[in-house]
Design brief:
The protein has 24 helices and 22 strands. The chain is α+β, with helices and mostly antiparallel strands and about 675 residues long. The N terminus and C terminus are likely disordered.
Length: about 675
């Protein structure tokens, strides 16, 4: 808090410095015209102090570190002007230089407001529900596991999970999503988001200092501290160029003296050259643009971890996507349930769901959802054993699994679920009502559900109709699960992870911003990957990949293009690290994603990637424009000084004016880029 107060005081003094310098310098000029020599000296001295205190401090501090910066050059030039009787020129220099510094500081502070706005989103207190009722506590004192109440219009104070109640939440400040998100029991909520219309009870899942919002605040601040290569180049350039300027100034002073010119005239021109050649505009070009771009992206729920990553993002020509949860919804749905002859679909789902209730896997969840949708009864299973990614086995110790499924009977198996049942629809008709499918089921039958390879390893008999169904469904790019009971397969469940609705337009936008190649790299079955890639129009796709194989594909692409890898930031970590830029998508609340990726898209918005690339490229262009403009101004001013066409005040105007123009040019990036109309998150509004 003390540091913040000192920073605010320093900022206010920086803004007051030009006004004080102008007033005191004008008073000195009037005293000079009136012949008041003592007052003239006093007012000019005070003007120098008001305008030169900050640059003198910075210049001396840099000099103690064996560095020469622009501040020192300006102080030397102003003192030199005073030494040859041109105190008013020195006062003008300090006025314009302090004005330029104030404008630069204002411009850069504008780009840092994303952090301040995010900090303002964090409520100070939370309504905690305890044995004695409700009470207000500071957020930092609320423990994990506590129950808090969030009313309509309030900001969620801490990360948590909804326990009771339903509502919609504006979480644009975290994810960049423009539309409110519905929340019900079991859904996560994030600190700083706005509860719009319902009263909800939330269980706290993270302490105050570790919420998603707190991590974002820290990341944005850290990103703004990390410098791009062009910024580092500017700093190195400033050091070396400043020494060159000092050496050139010494030559510009010594040469005329050697030719017999008056000292005052030679010294004054040398000081004018010192100002004209100073690299202020060159130094400010990169940070003004880069920080503005980072702030713009943060406002839209896109976190870029520093200028270096922004710079690399601008060079990307190819994008490699993970499939599940990135280009697809990440939650497969059942497209068809195909029973064996003499078995109905409800029975197949009953056996599969009874085993899968013990597994937390996307396919298992899809099967359970389908069973619930068809109102198929699910019973307990014993001795359940799961082989990760392959299948589940267990014993169904009761014949009621079949009888319960038979209660929904033919209705569950008359038609497949989903819009496209495929060529095997005729096999989905249920058994006749008079044929109880599992009437002879023993009380302790071994059952399996899993991939065809997993089922074959269990030496299960698979009827020929199911073999054909498996081949047809796999050829169509669907994921196939076989269900077996009592040594024989009783049916097939086919599933499909559908592409995101926004995936195709997002890919089109990537091509419009200059992406030459789009690739899918996935650990899913090659046929599934090929189907999704074909549906979306990707240039190429690779399936069945292990993490190290994904890295190999990324390195192959990198031989032709700079490549960005987009994944979930968890199992794609090696590929993200191998890419030119690693991008984690939909990472709100995911600690691993926040840590591993170079760029984090906080919401599930694929189009945000194209926007990020467009902003990065715009930033690169603005930096180049600023450097070119600054260089041309320096060349023009130096030429005019050497020709004796301008004096110190005009040199100062040209030098400081170009610096302000370059800084304001960088601020354009706060407004976004042409052709993209994205609603900013409230954090930066």
């Amino acid at each position: 808090m003390k540091d913040d107060a000192l920073a605010r005081l320093g900022s206010r003094l920086l803004y007051l410095s030009p006004l004080a310098t102008l007033a005191l310098g004008l008073a000195g000029w009037l005293a000079e015209r009136g012949g008041f020599a003592t007052a003239e000296v006093l007012f000019y001295a005070l003007a120098y102090l008001a305008g030169g205190a900050f640059p003198a401090y910075e210049g001396v501090r840099a000099l103690l570190q064996r560095k020469v910066d622009v501040d020192l050059l300006m102080v030397v030039a102003a003192l030199g002007a005073a030494a040859v009787g041109q105190a008013e020129d020195g006062a003008i220099l300090f006025f314009l230089f302090s004005t330029s510094n104030a404008l630069q500081d204002y411009a850069l502070q504008r780009t840092r407001r994303a952090v301040s706005a995010l900090m303002a989103l964090r409520p100070d207190e939370a309504t905690v529900i305890g044995p004695d009722g409700e009470r207000r506590l500071p957020c930092e004192e609320v423990p994990v596991g506590a129950r808090i109440l969030v009313r309509p219009g309030e900001r969620v104070p801490l990360d948590g999970e909804v326990l009771a109640g339903t509502t919609s939440v504006d979480q644009s400040a975290i994810t960049g999503e423009s539309a409110p998100v519905a929340k019900s029991p079991g859904d996560p909520v994030f600190a700083g988001t706005v509860n719009l219309d319902g009263v909800v009870e939330v269980r706290v899942t993270k302490p105050y200092g570790e919420t998603t919002l707190a991590r974002i605040v820290a990341m944005v601040a850290e990103a703004q501290a990390r410098k791009a290569e062009v910024e580092l180049w500017s700093e190195r350039f400033e050091q070396r160029y400043s020494l060159v300027v000092l050496a050139g100034t010494a030559v510009a002073l010594a040469l005329p003296l050697a030719l017999g010119r008056p000292f005052d005239e030679s010294f004054y021109r040398a000081m004018t050259l010192l100002v004209a050649a100073s690299p202020c505009a060159v130094v400010i070009a990169a940070p003004a643009a880069v920080l503005s771009a980072l702030a713009n992206l943060a406002r839209h729920g896109i976190l870029v971890k520093g200028g270096a990553h922004l710079e690399r993002l601008a060079t990307v020509e190819a994008v490699a996507f993970d499939k599940t949860g990135t280009l697809t919804l990440g939650e497969p749905r059942v497209t068809a349930v195909v029973p064996a002859p003499g078995v109905d679909a409800g029975e197949v789902l009953a056996v599969a769901a009874s085993l899968e209730q013990h597994v937390d896997h996307p396919l298992a969840r899809a099967i359970r959802r389908e069973a619930a949708a068809r109102e198929v009864a699910v019973g307990p299973a014993d001795d359940v054993q799961a082989v990760a990614g392959r299948g589940v086995s267990g014993r169904l110790p009761f014949p009621a699994a079949a009888l319960a499924a038979a209660e929904v009977g033919a209705a569950a198996g008359e038609l497949p679920r989903g819009p496209d049942p495929g060529p095997t629809a005729g096999t989905l008709v249920a058994a006749q009502a008079g044929d109880p499918p599992m009437a002879e089921a023993r009380a302790d039958e071994l059952a399996h559900v899993g991939s065809p390879h997993y089922i074959r390893e269990r030496e299960v008999d698979v009827p020929e109709p199911l073999v054909r169904t498996v081949a047809e469904r796999e050829a169509a790019g669907e994921t196939v699960v076989l269900v077996a009971r009592g040594g024989a397969a009783i049916g097939v469940v086919s599933l499909l992870d559908e592409p995101r609705p926004e995936a195709r337009p997002a890919l089109a936008r990537l091509r419009r911003v200059g992406i030459r190649e789009t690739v899918m790299i996935s650990g899913d079955q090659p046929r599934v990957v090929e189907r999704v890639a074909k549906d979306l129009g990707l240039d190429s796709a690779y399936g069945g990949l292990l993490p190290d194989e994904k890295v190999g594909i990324v390195r192959t692409i990198a031989k032709k293009h700079r490549v960005a890898v987009v994944g979930d930031g968890v199992n794609d970590a090696p590929a993200l690290a191998a890419a030119t830029v690693g991008v984690a998508m939909g990472a709100a609340g995911t600690d691993v994603a926040l840590e591993t990726a170079d760029v984090v898209l906080m919401g599930d918005d694929l189009e945000a990637l194209a926007y990020a690339i467009a902003v990065a490229r715009r930033a690169t262009a603005v930096v180049r424009q600023g450097l070119a403009f600054a260089g041309l101004v320096i060349v023009a001013l130096v030429t005019l000084v050497l020709l004796g066409e301008i004096r110190l005040p005009l040199s100062v105007v040209g030098h400081e004016g170009s610096t302000v123009v370059v800084a304001l040019s960088g601020l354009r990036l706060l407004l976004g880029v042409p052709g993209f109309h994205r609603k900013p998150a409230h954090a930066g509004a």
